[in-house]
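Quick start: read one record
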Amino acid sequence: MRNLADLFQNGTERKIYSYSDYMLLMELVVMEQRTTGPKQSEELNDYTKLNLHRMQRLNKTVVLSESLKIAVSQIQFPQTWYVLTEAWCGDAAQNIPVLAAVAKLNPLVDLQLLLRDENPDLMDLYLTNGGKSIPKLIAVDGAFNEIFNWGPRPAGAQHMMEEYKKNPVKSYKEFGEDIHKWYAADKTLSVQKELLDILEGVLIDK
């Protein structure tokens, strides 16, 4: 089990957002026609604007399964769910509202969001195939022992990404549209099922 106490207690100041504060940040950067992170472009600004709309919609429409609600209700000790993200990331926009809805069900779960590019030491511990893919959820207990991690996207979407990287026959923008069509058809069911499987496994271990 990985322990992250040194990363969070070594005096390093980390800007941490609650979910409501992160939504306010999204609104701010869209209003200012920019995004988060050091890289700025009109394309990333457009992605960020789309992501804000996606998150606002999902905040109103996510319906959690009864089995997932039950699993979350059975969490019996305080834990923090850290999520590495950036405003321009489409996968983050599709998945974080689900994580927020889940965390909201149990007061023992504290959801905190951090920007990836402001926290390279943490991101470097949770690479996906060597890449800094986000969102990345890292759940820890009160002693900063890792309970589980998840991300950067459900298995179905991850498979699409891996196949695209092997044979990029279309532009990344076109591929991005395919990914978001997948999310629309999936209706958050995959991320919910994966979280359920993880939580049930953790509860059994405990």
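The chain has nine helices and four strands.
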